[in-house]
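WARN retry 2 of 3 for item q-0093 after timeout on previous attempt; input resubmitted unchanged.
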Amino acid sequence: MPSLKAIIIDDEQSSLHALKAKLHRHCPEIELMRECLSAEEGIVAIEHLHPDIVFLDVEMPRMNGFVMLQQLINKDFELIFTTAYDHYAIEAIRFSALDYLVKPIEVDELRAAVERAMRKRQQPVTNQRIENLLHNLVEGGNVIRRIAVPSQDCLQYIGIDDIIYLEADGNYTFLYLRDGQKLTVSKTLKDFEDLLPANLFIRIHHSCIINKNQVSKYLKGEGGQVVMNNGKILDVARRRKEDFLRAMDRR
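OK item q-0093 returned
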C-alpha cells in the first residue's frame, strides 16, 4: 500500500496526541513525520520535509491556520483542517474542495478524509485548492467568490456570480455560465444546493436552481416562469412559487 508522509500542526497537545493515535491505529498508509505545536513550527516542517498531507488546526495563538498558509512558499500537499467547532470559514473550505474534520475526530470520518487525500494526491491541483481558499478568505471576506468544480481531469475554478442557473441530469449537473459555457459536473443538484449560498441561489424546481441576480423577468402563472439574463425561460414549480417570490423580495 502506498504511504503518505504527514505532518500534524495543532497547539493543543491532547488533540495532537489523539489524532496521532488514531492515525497509527486506523490509517496505516500514513507515515507521520513531525508533530508541531505552533504554526511557526509547522512552516519550518513543511518547507523542510515536503509532506504529502498536512493536518492543520484552524485556530492557534499568534498565527492561525489560514495566516500560516499565506506564509508558505510550498503548498504542494493535501490539506485537512481540524477544528473544535463549526468555524466561520468551513464554507470556504468546502467551496475550495478541501477537507475538514471537527474535533473530537471520528474514526470513520478520518478514514474517509485520508482516502480522499490519497485519491486527490494523484491529481496535481492541490496548490490551486489552497490558493482558491485563500482567495475566498482574504479577498472575499466572509463572502464566497469562487468554487472548485471537478471535471474529467482537473478542477475548474469559477466565480459564483458567473453561474446563471444549474440543471439536474441524474447524478450529473449542468452549469450554465454568463460567458455561454455549459459545464457538466459529476455532482448532484442536491450537492450544489448544499454548497451554494442560499441567499443567492434558489431552487425553483426539482431539477433547477437559479442565481437570483441573473433573473431578468418573472412571468406570472400557476407557478410562473423566470426569464434569465441569457434569455432562457425556466418554469417555477407551483409549490416553490412563494419561496421564490420571498427570496426575490430580499434582493
